[in-house]
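Changelog-adjacent note: as of this version, every example in the card shows the full chain rather than a window. The one below runs 244 residues end to end.
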Amino acid sequence: MTKLEVRHVTFAYENTNIIEDISLKLNENELVCLLGVSGSGKTTLFNVISGLQKPDSGSVLLNGNDITEKPGNVSYMLQKDLLLPYRTIEDNVALPLIIKGVKKREAREKASEHFADFGLEGTQKRFPSELSGGMRQRAALLRTYMFSGEVALLDEPFSALDALTKHDIHSWYLDVMSRIKLSTLFITHDIDEAILLSDRIYLLNGKPGRITDEIIIERPGGSRENFNLTGEFLEYKRKILSKL
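Full-length structure tokens:
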């Protein structure tokens, strides 16, 4: 089932197209990556999908309904966790619900229901400065999920983490995403990360940015475990490098 669909989206700034004729789909429980060089319009596309910017042409659909220029329908997480330092983790996570008009006590209760799933149990009353980078990122991802539990747009969410922490949080996010049935569209510059995590990869190239290829990732046995050590992984990487 298609959760999110982008149809022929073009966006221009000062009469210059930044992205042009972009079409893509995100299916239920799928993780899809947008991979491309800097300046190809990936973040601009996310701004259009999230409703923050109006496209010059084209449309965005969620569950078949037009959400073009209608913010608040999909979650959007930027590269930095942007947790408010003066709020507890509980209040940071509950913030999307409070903004939507839910009373603070009820928002905290709803947020707390998910702390165990996100590996954050016991951090409710702590402050962001008391958590590790990986734990802060988990809190930011939970806050993103509280905004909209169907589709998450993640803009380089793991780039600030060290290699070992990134490996752990990759496995954790895939597990959580499966359990809560979240569909994810994410941006990365990291080819290895894209191949390891994605079900499909869209390559965004040129100025203006256009989708030039769609690559379906097929893993032996369907497992991501040690996939980055296989010949198949290297073949995907060679293919992508030749096209970027």
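Structural remarks: The chain is about 35% helix and 25% strand.
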